[in-house]
Every structure is written in structure tokens, then in C-alpha cells.
Amino acid sequence: MSATIISGKTISAKLRQAVKAEADALREQGIVPGLAVILVGNDPASAIYVRNKEKACAECGFYSEKYELPAETSQAELLELIEKLNQDPKVHGILCQLPLPEQISEDAVIRAIRPEKDVDAFHPANVGHIMIGDHDFVPCTPAGVMAMLDECGIDPAGKHCVVVGRSNIVGKPMSMLLLHRHGTVTVCHSRTKDLADVCRSADILVAAVGRAGFITADMVKEGAVVIDVGINRTPEGKVVGDVCTAEVAEKAAWLTPVPGGVGVMTITMLMQNTLKAAKKQAAG
Fold first, then answer.
1. Backbone angles phi, psi at 43, to 5 degrees
2. Of 143, 118, 148, 181, which Cα lies nearest the Cα of 14?
3. Is the confidence at residue 1, as pLDDT, over 90?
4. What is the pLDDT of residues 248-284, one digit of tens each?
5. Among 61, 65, 260, 272, which residue's CB has the most CB atoms within a 10 Å radius?
6. What pLDDT score was predicted for residue 66?
7. pLDDT band at residue 54, thresholds of 50, 70 and 90?
8. Active site residues
């Protein structure tokens, strides 16, 4: 067996066209979706993400603002900026790039962004809505995974879905989205016993641990769907996922690549969330 590759680039291009069409229609009503992105410090990976978000905004016809703050920025200064953006009617979505310098509490920053402008869906209010299934926004990476499954006609209902990783950004919301779609979900982490056995039982396996090549072929069931969320950089500078792609591709039925898979979708789902925020705020 050789896995069918699920191209994030192809699916993303299709979804962005739809987002742009809706944004164009909104513009005729005098509404331009607006996204403000805040970057504190000079983390190179974060800077790349921010540039990609700017490009996506331009592609979709959005208004965008970028705030690059020095690493020594205080928490009070950052919270003051966020409150200014909370009050700005041109800005429908606010994103503060993580991680933040150690003097700034990520939790305080996440809570400071108004839930209706929280297009990352990290605010506790939005997390609660995800839990009970009546959400406006979903964290962008899990949302991207679900969009990829939908595009390929892969229905989680009745399937055993194993999520490796329990972060608030990916693992936990991913498990909730699969559960809402009637998957039987197991969440694995560093203290899971017999991890390989659990992974081998998965019809849909989502790897989100941040460790290069963590998922090997002996951890994958024949014919499984394998979603690689990881983005890791090797000492040689190569970008790789959490899955040993070449060997897993010989057992899986479907597989997402790195790069060109889930990472591309993440930014597209951010555009979808921003569009939704603009429509909801315009409707009052």
C-alpha cells in the first residue's frame, strides 16, 4: 500500500478562494475583515508565521495590522495595546503570536483579548464553547485538520481516533472536534502506557507531539489515516513532521505531508475565523 497524500496546499487554495469571495461581498457593504497580529521579541519561526499571515490577509482582501514589539516589552504595555485593539472597530480579530517572553503571562494575554475577537480561540470562554459544541471559533490547527478530513470524505463517526499530544492549542481541541463528529477518541501523552499499541489501534491517528519522526511504521495500523501536525527543524535545517513519512506511507491509506500539509491549513483557518468575526461584529 502507498498512502494517498492529503495536500494542504491544494485544499487551502480552494478554501481561500471561498474566503476571498465572501470578503469581496462584505466589502460591497462597507465591511473589510481586519486582523491585528502582535509579535513580541525576535523569534525567527514566529517572524515567519507572522509574515505568512500578512500574505494571507493580502490574498484574501483583508485589512491587516502588524505590531512588532521588543523582547523587553512589559506585560502592562502589551495589555494596553490589546485593549486599544479591542476597542478598534477596524480590527475584527486579534492574534498575539506565542510563545511570549518570560516576563509576560500567556494566560493574562489570552484572557485580555475579547472572545469575539479571539480568532485563535484560546480564550477560556471560547474553549468552553468548543467543549459543549456551540462554538463560533475553533483553534486554527485542529480546524484545518477537520477541513482536510472533510475534503477527502473521511468521516470520523464510529472510528477510533487517537490524538498523540494534549496541548491546549492542538491536542485537547482536536479531541473535542473528533468527539463532536462521533469519533471514539483516545488522547495519548508522555505518561501513556503501551503508546505504540494504542496508536496501532487507531483508524485516524493525529500526531501533535513536536518530536521529529516520533511516529514510526510499527505504530501505525494498515490502512489508517495519519495526520501529521508536527513542524520540527532538524540540525541540518530541514523541516520535518512528527511522522516518519517514507515508512508510514507504506502502511497508511491517507497521510498529510510536512511541509505542505496541516501547517498551510492553519493560516487558512485563521482567515476563516477572521471573516466569521467580521460578519458577527457587523451584525451586532
1. -65, 120
2. 148
3. no
4. 999 999 999 999 999 999 999 999 999 999 999 999 7
5. 272
6. 96
7. very high
8. 53, 97, 120
Mean pLDDT of the chain: 96
* Per-residue H/E/C for the chain: CCCEECCHHHHHHHHHHHHHHHHHHHHCCCCCCEEEEEEECCCHHHHHHHHHHHHHHHHHCCEEEEEEECCCCCHHHHHHHHHHHHHCCCCCEEEECCCCCCCCCHHHHHHHCCHHHECCCCCHHHHHHHHHCCCCCCCHHHHHHHHHHHHCCCCCCCCEEEEECCCCCCHHHHHHHHHHCCCEEEEECCCCCCHHHHHHCCCEEEECCCCCCCECHHHCCCCCEEEECCCEECCCCCEECCECHHHHCCCCCEECCCCCCHHHHHHHHHHHHHHHHHHHHHHC
pTM of the prediction?
0.96
Alpha-carbon distance 263 to 229, whole Å? 7
